[in-house]
Design goal:
Strand order of the largest sheet: 1-2-3-5-7-9
Oligomer: single chain
Number of helices: 9
Distance between the termini: 17 Å
CATH class: Alpha Beta
CATH topology: 2-enoyl-CoA Hydratase, Chain A, domain 1
Structural class: alpha/beta
CATH superfamily: 2-enoyl-CoA Hydratase, Chain A, domain 1
Largest sheet: 6 strands, mixed
CATH architecture: Alpha-Beta Complex
Number of strands: 9
Radius of gyration: 17 Å
Strand content: 15-25%
């Protein structure tokens, strides 16, 4: 089953997460999104990418009910796969715009942070790294991407509070760059993507790499240990009990 819908308009390609009501992330979603991005990376007709969600959610994060059936080894494999995806997306040579059509929570927020520009709808939508609220940690890569965009002080506030930020507050923190009404989201995402696609291809890729190379190095050097720590906390008695009560479908 396809959980990522694709669309092309001129030189802008759109990948739309489409899995259930909340676009929950699992191994199939991660694999499909990566395969699509790799194909577009090598396609000279694609100048920029938009990542968005179907329905009223960008993504509510991991499909926790599915992962409750995983043993430690299976879950660790998924986490490696997921963190590899956002690391790849963070250093993707072409411009990537996240069009946040609704809630971007936890893993969904991490995918958004890996993009070059985030546009969020006003209203009820929230963006958050809320893992601490149910007794979970985050990853080295997600921490470094967050710090890259919002600075250390704001990153600390976001991660320790686990707060759910509306669009205007998210913009003030640097979590998103644009806030638009729902009916303007697709248009604005296309505008930004088209403008970025007009940049010199090799120059854009070079500048992006130079800006992020040290961050990516830090992400990669610490990620394996962060995943081990994440798994230990995830399967701890208190966190495991909290996870049983999460319903996302």
């Amino acid at each position: 089953m396809d959980f990522v819908e694709v669309q092309r308009s001129d030189r802008v390609a759109t990948a739309r997460l489409s899995r259930g009501k909340v676009n929950a992330l699992n191994g199939a979603v991660v694999d499909q999104l990566r395969d699509i991005l790799r194909a577009w990376e090598g396609d000279p007709e694609v100048g920029a990418v938009v990542v968005t969600g179907a329905g009223r959610f960008f993504s509510f994060g991991f499909d926790i009910p599915e992962f409750l059936s995983f043993n430690r080894a299976q879950f660790t494999d998924f986490l490696r796969n997921f963190t590899d995806l956002y690391t790849y997306l963070f250093q993707y040579p072409k411009p990537v715009v996240a069009a946040l059509n609704g809630h971007a929570i936890a893993g969904g927020c991490m995918l958004a942070l890996a993009c070059d520009h985030r546009i969020m709808v006003s209203g009820k939508a929230r963006i958050s790294l809320n893992e601490i609220g149910f007794g979970s940690s985050v990853f080295a890569g997600s921490t470094e991407m967050l710090r890259f965009w919002v600075g250390s002080a704001n990153a600390t506030a976001v991660l320790v509070s686990g707060a759910m930020y509306p669009a205007e507050e998210a913009r003030s923190l640097g979590l998103v760059q644009d806030v638009v009404p729902e009916e303007r989201l697709a248009e604005r995402a296309n505008e930004v993507a088209t403008a970025l696609a007009a940049k010199h291809v090799a120059a854009f890729a070079s500048v992006k790499s130079l800006l992020r190379r040290s961050v990516v190095g830090e992400m990669k050097s610490r990620e394996a240990e962060a995943i081990r720590e994440f798994v230990n906390i995830w399967y701890s008695e208190a966190t495991w009990a909290n996870l049983q009560n999460i319903r996302i479908r």
